[in-house]
Amino acid sequence: MAQTKRKRQTKHRGNAAGVVEARGRTGRPPSADEKKRQTREQTREARLRRRPTWKGAFLRALLAGGFMFIFLLVTQHPKHGSSLPPALYFAVIAVVLYTPGGFYVEMFLWRRRMAKLERAKR
């Protein structure tokens, strides 16, 4: 007579405490979306754990200064001459002020995040 119940392919082995442990990976393989999500989360975690740098703060300030320059260049209506010098002046001032400000804000947030992770470990 044919067997109605499919037999197990791999054995479960119990240890001394009586706990049954399965050998190897027993679940289904992750799908492409699950792999992508997992990789994205790992990348995000690695990025959030990295200590802030002055170079990163400067590049962000440079980007903000560039946006400010373009905005002022487009929106400023000069009475006499060009609107280029004032826009450039304010953009440079923005980069000078945003660099340390951005660095210290990011450092504060990073320290808080690391302290939270440390508390979660305990």
Essential attributes:
single chain; 122 residues; mainly alpha; 2 strands
Give a quick precis of the structure.
This protein is mainly alpha-helical and about 120 residues long.
Explain what this protein looks like in three dimensions.
This protein has three helices and two strands, in the order E-E-H-H-H. It has a two-stranded antiparallel ribbon. It has a domain at 51-122. The protein has helices at 32-49, 54-75, 84-121; strands at residues 13-14, 20-21. A hairpin with a 5-residue loop joins strand 1 and strand 2 (20-21). The protein is elongated and about 100 Å long. The longest helix is centred in the C-terminal third of the chain and has 38 residues, at 84-121. It has 122 residues and is mainly alpha-helical. The model has no long low-confidence stretch (mean pLDDT 85).
Spatial gap, N to C terminus:
58 Å
Please state the average pLDDT score: 85
> Which ranges are low-confidence, i.e. pLDDT below 50, for 5 or more consecutive residues?
none
- Class by alpha and beta content: mainly alpha
The run of helices and strands is: EEHHH
* Lateral strand order in the biggest sheet: 1-2
In DSSP terms, counting alpha (H) and pi (I) runs of 4 or more, how many helices? Answer: 3
List the helices and strands and how they pair.
Blueprint (H helix, E strand, L loop, with lengths): L12 E2 L5 E2 L10 H18 L4 H22 L8 H38 L1
Antiparallel strand pairs: 1-2
Helix pairs in contact: 2-3
